[in-house]
From TrEMBL:
Entry protein name: Voltage-gated potassium channel
Compartments where located: Membrane
Naturally occurring in which organism (per UniProt): Kocuria gwangalliensis
Keyword Transmembrane helix part of the UniProt annotation: yes
Record keywords, A-Z: Membrane, Transmembrane, Transmembrane helix
Amino acid sequence: MGWVFWVIFVAEFLLRAYIAEFQAAFWKRNWWQVIFLLIPFLRFFRALQTLRLLRLTRVARVGGIVSASVRGSRSAGKLLSNRIGWVAAVTAVVVLASSQLLYAVGSHTDYSKALYEAALTTITGSGLTTSDGFSQILHVLLAMYSVAVFATLAGSLGAYFLRDQPVGHSSEDAESRLAPGGN
């Protein structure tokens, strides 16, 4: 209601200025009214600036989370030579980063629920229950990540079983040993 009254006062003041044909004498007599009419508007403008600052801090927080997760995955790549260990470390970084993003953006108000859903989505490809735009995009990215992790694990497992035979044995020798009546 305060804003409605303020608009009425501004309209009344502008009507009086129009009737006075916006002459300098009108402004000299009523300059103090201009100040009192602008003060509530300045408070409204200050509130808008505060909202912008909140958005900027949220963007800065999101940027810090993404930056920390990239540094963490790079450190894991430098420290771990084993592919499976590296995938496990990067998956842990992805789970923690995505849960922090869900919490920082406001998709979840409870961090433990954000962590649970991020872990479930990262591992299985399903699990996010929120339906805001950020959550949906993150859900698709984490589902794609889970497919890539599954493919990496399947490839590593296949490489383990299909690794080269010991020197001096050919694949024909291995087949003859597996055949009935072989050595």
